[in-house]
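Notes on consecutive records. When two proteins share a document, each keeps its own sequence and its own C-alpha cell line. Never mix them. Below: protein one.
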Amino acid sequence: MICLMRITILPILLASSLLLTQCQSAVGSDAEQILVDQFWRADGERVQQQSTAQLLKSAPDVAALYERLKVGPGYSSDVPTGQLELSRTAPDGTVFPYVVLVPEDYDSSRAYPVEFNLHGGVNRPPMAPGEPLWRQGYDGLRDSGRIVVVPAAWDEAFWWFDNQADNVPAILRSIKQTYNVDDNRVYLTGVSDGGTGSYFFAFMQPTEWAAFLPYIGNPGVLQNPAGQASYPLSFDNLAGKALYIVNGENDPLYPARAVQRYIDYMARANVEHVFKVIPNGGHNTAWMPEERPEIEAFKRTHVRDPLPERVQWATNRTDRYNRNHWLLIDELDKEGEPGRVIVRREGNQIRVNAYYVNAFTLLLNPEEIDFSLPVTIIINDDVVHDGLVAESADTLLKWAARDRDRSMLFTAELTLRVPLTPQ
C-alpha cells in the first residue's frame, strides 16, 4: 500500500474501480486500452487479479496482448511534481518512507530515467516525521532530466536485509504506476552504507537495474556477520552489469586499499567496472562536483539489456535471490549450498550448464524466440527439449504483473530438471 504524507491524489483503488466501470461501457480497442491502463496501475493483489481476469476475458490473443502491454498505459500529465514525501506499508505493517523528486516540467509523453539514492548511516533508529532522509538535503539530487528516489533505511531495515530487498523494487513498481519510466535506464547509487547496499543489489538482485554506483562503501560488509546478515559473494553474478566505484585513499572506514581485493576479483571475473581512488580522500563525497561529468557520462552509456543472450546466476537459496532476468533457479542439490547456472541463447537454441542445481526455469520472449519453430534446450550436453513451446496469456500477465516492466515481457516459461550425471 502506498500512502501520501504531504500531497493528496485520487487513491489508486478508486481509480481502478472507475476504470472498470468505464471499460464496461466502452467498446473495441478503447475498452482494451482501458483494461491495459487498469492492469499496469493496479494496486494490491485483489485489484491486480480483477484486472488480469478482465484482460484475459477481453483479449485472449497472446500476440495482440503482448503488443498492447509493450506499449503500456496512457500516462497523464496531471500528476504531482516536485518533492513528494511518500511511504509504503509492507505486508507485515512496517512503514517505509521515501522521497521522490519529479521534474517540475514533467512531460508524460517521454520516458524518464530513474535514479535511486541509498543513504548512509543505517545503524540508527527510524527517521522522525519531517526528518530529511538525505542528510545533505535534496537540492543536490534534483535533476530536470530524471526522476530521483530517496528511500529510507534504519537499524531494523539495513539495505542488505530481506525487507529492503522487497521494499526497493516495490517502490520502483509503484512509481511506474503513475509516471512514464524508462525501464532500461534505472540506476542504483549509494553512499557509505548506501554504497554497500548498491553492492548488495548488484550481487543478489540485479534484474531491475541498468548499472550500480557504490560510493565510499565496501562489499566486504556483506560477508560480515556483525552486519546482521552475511552472503556468499559470487563475482560472476556481476556479469552484464557495470559498476562505477569511488573510494577515498584515506577513508578511515573503507579506504580504497580495503576495497582493492574486491576490485581484483571483479577484474578476474571480467566484470565491467570503473574504480576511482580519490587521493587523500576521506569518508565523504567532497569529490562529487569534479567527478560528476564522468559519472553522468557513465550513466548515459550504460543502458540495461532486458533480454541478454547470455545470463548466469549463482545462489545458495531458492526462496529469494534466485533470479537473473529470464533465468530462475528453482531447486539446488542442497539448500544452503551454492549452485550455478549459465545460459546462452542463440535463436531457438538454448544451451545450459548447470552445477549443483536440480531444476530451473527459463522465461521466453516472443521477440527473441520464434514460437512457430521448435525450441531446443541442451543441458550439460544433453538435449532435454526439442519441440514447439506454447505461448500463454496467463504467463504473460503473471510476469508482467510481477515485474511491471514493459521491455521485459514473457509469453512462455519452461521449468526444466537437470539430467542426472551417470555415476
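Protein two starts on the next line and is unrelated to protein one.
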Amino acid sequence: MFEVLTEKLSRIFSGLNNKGRLSEKDVDEALRQIRLALLEADVNFKVVKSFLGVVREKALEAKVLESLSPAQQIVKIVNEELVGMLGREPARLKASSRQPSVIMLVGLQGAGKTTTAAKLAFHLKQSGQNVLLVAADTRRPAAIDQLKVLGSQLDIPVYHEDVTVSPVQISRNSIARAEEMAAVWVIIDTQGRLHIDAPLMQELKDIKKTVQPAEILLIADAMTGQDAVNIAGEFNSNLELTGLILTKMDGDARGGAALSIKSVTGVPIKFLGMGEKTSSLEVFYPDRLASRILGMGDVLTLIEKAEKTFDKQQMEKLESKLRKSEFDLNDLLEQMRQIKKMGSFSQLVDMIPGFSKLTKGISDSESQDRTKNIEAIILSMTAEERSNPDLINGSRKRRIARGSGTTPGDVNQLLNQFYNVQRMTRMMAKGKLPKNIAGLMGR
C-alpha cells in the first residue's frame, strides 16, 4: 500500500534535508516533484492542486524557511495537510437510537461486499456486540451460500430466504429476526450493481426506506483508482452514504482513491480491507495512514494487532522467561507462529518506522519461505535440543539439516540469530523490560 508514493516522497524529503537552508525556489521544486508523485499515485488532480496550494502557502512562511530545520518543518506541514485530506478524525460507526442498528452495504459487483460483510460482522463481534448478517443478494445465489459459509465459520447467524423473495422483503423480515435474537447490529449484503443501473438503484432506495439504516456504507475496490471516486459520488447522490470501506488496499501500491475520495465526495472512509482473512479489516485513522504514506510507520496499529493476536497468559509467561533469561527455541517457534497471525510480512514492516527500507526487495513469499525453513529446522530438533541449543554440535547440525530439508549453514544461521536474541534477553533481564517491547507483546 502506497509503496511507490512513499518511496518517492522519501527521496524528495531526503533531498531537502541535504540542502540545509531552503529558498523559495527549493520549495517550489520540491512541490513540483510532490505534485508528480501524487498524480502518478492516481490522486485526483483537483485534490492535488488544492493540497499543494495550502502546503506552499504554509511552507513559505518566514518562520519555516528561517528555522534550523526547514525540511522537517515542511514534512510536518505535508503530514498535517495529508491528515486533513483524509478526514482528520476517524469516522466511527454510529448506532441508531433504538436497536437493532442497521448497516446497508452497497457497491459494484466484485468490490468484495460479501466478504466485507463477514469481516465487519467479525469486527463487531470481537467488541462483544451481537450481530445478524442478512443475505439480500438474491440475483446471485452464490452470494447467499458464500455468506452462509462465512457466517458458519465465524459463528455468526445469517438470515436468508428463498431467492424468489424480494430483497426489500428479506431486509424487512430480517429486522424482526434481529429483534428476536436481541442483535445489536444487522448487516445487509445487497446485490452488486452499476451506479448507472436505475432499477437496481431504486431497489436500494426502497430497502433504505424500509429498514431506515443507521449506516449506508459503500464497498469500493481501491485498485479501481479514480473510478472508485466517481462511483462513490454517484452512490452518494442517490443514497446519501454515511461512509466507505475501501477493499484490496493491500494490493494497491498507488492508493490514489484513499487520498481523493473524502475530499471529492465528502464521504468519510471508515474501514480499510487489508487482506483476505476475516480479521484483515482495519479501522481507518487518517493520522496513522498519513504517517505510513510518509514512511513514518504506524506503531499504534501494530500494537493493536498484537493485543488482538497474542494470548495474555502466554505473553505473561514469555515475559517471565525473558526476565529470567530462559527464552529457548520452543519460545522462538511459538512467537513466530503468533506473529504470522498478525498479517503479511509486508503489512507488518510497513507499520515499523524506517523498517520498510531495510526489508525492501523481500517479498511476502520469500518471507514465508524463510519462516517455513526456520519452523522445519526447529521441529527437526529433539525436545532436549530445543530447550538447550548448546548441545547442537556438528553432527547434530547435519542430522537436523537432513531432517528439515535445509543445509547445515541454514541451521548455523538460525542458531546465530537465536543466540543474538538470547543475548538481548539477558541484557533486558538485568534491567526493566523496555516499554515498547512490552507494548508490542500486548501488555
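For the record: Residues 408-430 form the longest helix (23 residues).
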